[in-house]
Amino acid sequence: MIKQAQIEELQRFGYQNGVAEDNLGSFLRRTMERVKIRGPLDESQIDPLQAAAKEVIRYTGEINDGTLLGFQEDRNIHKAIQGLAQPQRILVLLHLVNGKTLHETTQILELDEQEAAELVDTARIKLRSELQLKDQQQLDQRLEFAAKSYKRIKLPSLAPIATIEAAIHQATPQKHKLNKPVIWLVAASVALLAVMVGASFFIDSFRLPSMNQAQEGQLTRELAEDMEQQYTDTRQAAKQRLGLSEGAYSQFQYVSAADRQKETVFSTSNLKAQQHDAEAFQQQVTELLWMAETPKGMAELAGNSGSMLTAEVDRFLKLYVEKTGELQNLAQDILTEHQEQLPQQPEAYSDPLALLNDMPNAPEELTQLLTAWPEYGLNFRTVNEGQSYSATRNTDMLQRLPQFQGHSFAYYYLQLLTDYPYFDQTGWLIEPHILIEKLHTMLFLLIDELTDSSLKQDLEVMYEQTFWQIIKGAESEIYEDGQVKPEIRTLWRSLTSYDSAAIILLPVIEEMEQSNWTRSATLDELEYGTSLEMLHLVRNGDLQVTLPNGDFPLETETLNLKGFDYNRVAELYARFTDGHDRSVLAGVQPMDIYLLYFYANQQQDAETMWHLQSDSQLKPELEDYLAKWQALPELTDNVLSIEMTNQQQRIVEKIVLHPVLAYEDQTELTHLANPHQLQLVTESDHIWLIQYEQKETVEGRNPALEQQGKDAYMQLKQQKELPLDTEPLVVAYALLHAVDKEDGEAVNQLLRTSVEEMDVDFWRNFASSHQIAGFENMESMVFSASDLNMQEATIGNLQILYETETGEQLYEFLQMLKTESGWRFENFLNY
Question: What span, in angstroms and rounded, lies between the C-alpha atoms of 598 and 633?
Fold first, then answer.
């Protein structure tokens, strides 16, 4: 039994999502086919709405204009909602219009609840902007009015429910039958294709059994005919959605490959081979439909397919990369040819239809491309200082699918494809800091990711080309006034964490530093292809011993500290304290160095602790260190165990280890505030030391320090420079005073000079975060700084903890940099 109210709800839901009035009947029938009715449905069930949501995603027909809504304001918000991308539109309609809870909505759409909440928040911003509403209250009111208007609309009449049910039961497909996509074909071509298909299964006297004759799991004539028709329909629909003629469409290599594969799949020999395995034949056809579909259509097919095996994901991505690559080239050629006719400021046109609206006399091929743009699976990118349009892949739909999000390699490949290509004939198309991320992802996939993906061969080429460009590409991209640019130095240093890049870059960096970053003989002699050779050596395990500190024998160990008394390191302590000769430490395992450091702490031996710390620009002279020294909390009082793994990290010539500590109360301390969470580092001679860190901590509200920060803020306000030795915590308090006053000008003076100044609205948003808690609720402030990083700089991290009157704990994490003017803040874009 299907209640009339449920039928109307589903029909109304289709209209809300843009389904044209004339198509609501067929939309409802397809929805109910998905439900596969077996008996009474309780009104609280979400299955029908889930089925309707999937049909909405598959719907490619005409979009209604909201004329059934009585008020123009409701039509405007209906139009704005249609402009939202999936699944935002469905989320907004279910949650904000139809009153479903966010939990119910995420169950219907099979989304993560946090992700759904973020999508709803983004949708609110887009709707407010589109409707030019001044605040959230206005939007909520408009959505409430629209919800009432949707309930009042007079829906198109439907056949009686009994007739619908009978049609559904009669149309319920066999267990092995695939759902057909929406198609547009003239009757004459359908008849012609039926004759062709009917003839193809009787060649050489071979004939598949009919559905009535087949055994369980056997391929039938009806299924094979249906599958072949699906391919023809999908190919025709894809061509039309791309807006291409048959001549232009068939020129693509991926289309030619699909047509050839179709002949193979439906050949007599393959039908014979698959006659007893209908499921395997369906998988062949599924891949065939992937080949024929548009990129958007591929994403929709994947979204409706459920779980996918690793081999299927790999094959899907391979096809997607090849297809979008060809379409990207076509789109880029058209954009480049009509560059002069395109409006300036491409970043203002994320919607290609908006771009068309500003080009009333656009050439036909450009109009055709932009009209069909969503099907191409592409985005716009701004290049040449914002003056040119560049096409990149749009992988958003795939990245949102659970089949790719949790997959071992798929998500990473999609991240790489989003910004590719990274270069063209004019130079770099993305910034160095983004290239760092891309290269790290490439190296992870090529070295650490164990799945032998068919994409790895193409990825090797991408890596080799990118590596070459960043070290021996255009001089204007790498050098400025004869010196390697600071951002390129950071890029090179960041890659030394991978052995395959380190073997090339370590001598280059050393020679560059000696020449003030002007020249390297090793770099001059480097040949194309060397980076790939080094990559292969790493895979074979033949490279590590040739690197500095690469052959250190590390032992993995977990040490239980219950009853521990430091006897293990007592003899080593006696030898080292007799002159503090570091050569005594050569070959000693990192665990013993770590224990030795805390044994010295227990003995109140600050001098030995100083000698056990690595050299650093931040490290004070021994006399100053002893004057300010305070003992650390005893290690064995709070820590249950220490684990020292062989998971080492390389930072240029240094190797770094991170001990893993277990506490009785794991939430007792954050990593930054933990006095026991130290790093160990070795630079040469197999000697491990404790990495020096500058740490400063304030507990509770500190009126004296607060006043110092206020005085520093007033100096900035009076256009005075702060003294070079101003302590980082004073700078931090000056920042908090400035944002509390919403003084963007003062805050910008506390940013490092190379960071672009932000407008007042940016600082107002940041200030709102601080003002929630404020000075009176400050629980602690921790500053920690080290020069152990990929940059040629000294980096500081600041953690502020607040506790509100309701007991809620709030953290702020900021990054600082030591500059020529003193400690300054990095641009913290997380706000």
Answer: 9
Q: What's the token pair of residue 509?
A: 């960096």
- Indicate whether 251 and 124 sit together in one domain: no
The verdict on 797 and 722 lying in the same domain is: yes
Distance CA 310, CA 759 (A): 47
Segment 686-702, tens digit of pLDDT: 899 999 998 888 888 88
Half-sphere exposure in the Cβ direction for 593 (13 Å, CA):
30
Does residue 683 share a domain with residue 713? no
CA 437-439-443 angle, 5° bins: 120
Q: Which of 243, 267, 293 is the last residue of a domain?
A: 293
Residue type, 686: H
pLDDT exceeds 50 at position 587: yes
For residue 830, being part of any structural domain is answered with no
What distance in Å separates the CA atoms of residue 826 and residue 460, rounded to the nearest whole number?
A: 34
Residue 701: what pLDDT? 84
Tens of pLDDT along 810-819?
Answer: 787 888 888 8
Whether 158 and 227 map to the same domain: the answer is no
pLDDT in tens, 89-99: 898 999 999 88
- Which of 408, 440, 465 delimits the end of a domain? 408
Chain segment 482-515, per-residue pLDDT in tens: 999 988 998 999 898 888 898 899 999 999 999 9
Q: How far apart are CA 36 and CA 165, in angstroms?
A: 10
Those residues with Cβ within 8 angstroms of residue 644's Cβ, 6 or more apart along the chain or in another chain: 555, 556, 557, 558, 559, 589, 590, 591, 594, 657, 659, 660
Would you give the distance in Å from CA 162 to the centre of its chain?
A: 48
Mutual angle of helices 278-292 and 221-242, in 10-degree steps:
10
Both structure tokens of 533? 């050779």
> pLDDT tens digits, residue range 625-656?
999 999 998 998 888 899 998 778 888 888 88
Counting the structural domains of the chain, the total is 6
* Residue 742, domain CATH: 3.10.450.590
**Surface-to-core class of residue 670, CB atoms within 10 Å of its CB (0-12 exposed, 13-18 middle, 19+ buried):** middle
Residue type, 830: N
Q: What pLDDT does residue 258 have?
A: 93
The residue that leads in pLDDT, 806 or 770, is 806
Amino acid letter, residue 238: A
Is 434 strand, coil or helix?
A: helix
Q: Are residues 369 and 447 in the same domain?
A: no
Does one domain contain both 540 and 562?
no
**Domain, as residue range, for 670:** 557-692
Domain presence at residue 300: no
